[in-house]
Amino acid sequence: MNVDTLLANPSIHASGLYNLDEGDYAQTLATLAEWGDAKAQHNLAAMYLEGIDVPLDYAQAEHWHRLSAEQGYAPAQYDLGTLYLEGLGVEPDPAQAAAWFLLAARQGDLKACNNLGILHATGEGVEREMVQARAWFLLAARGGLIDALENLELSAEEMSPEELASAEALVARWEKGEGEKGEA
């Protein structure tokens, strides 16, 4: 049973099985997060990351993002990747960042796609591979991420016509479901 189902159940309200303080958003969110709600965990992590209504605490941000990300919540996977990339609450680890970005990108997170492209273009945390980089930029740009457009232009300057065609073909395969996104 998910949290939304629990909250919609009038017998739960009457029985007092939970204690939510509607006047204290952080406490309410913490309660939902402790119940295992992935979105609440992600939102609580964001509050710790920014110090909004709770003390700034990168370790807590990492903890709650990880719990949410491990449930497959793409925004948390992206944010956990960012923590690893920037070394916030964890030791910097571009390979871990790439792994979390890949999980989010496979669910359609456009910022994760763009970041994977950057990592592949620079060789940070993954093998430097411009065809992969451009393929990720293409997915992000086609999805409407403005930042990816500049990266597409920059990647094209470094690639041969054959490599550009290979990137297009790779994206076409991924879009047809032929192979997992991220596989060559």
TrEMBL record:
<dbReference type="InterPro" id="IPR050767">
    <property type="entry name" value="Sel1_AlgK"/>
</dbReference>
<dbReference type="InterPro" id="IPR006597">
    <property type="entry name" value="Sel1-like"/>
</dbReference>
<dbReference type="Pfam" id="PF08238">
    <property type="entry name" value="Sel1"/>
</dbReference>
<protein>
    <recommendedName>
        <fullName>Sel1 repeat family protein</fullName>
    </recommendedName>
</protein>
<dbReference type="InterPro" id="IPR011990">
    <property type="entry name" value="TPR-like_helical_dom_sf"/>
</dbReference>
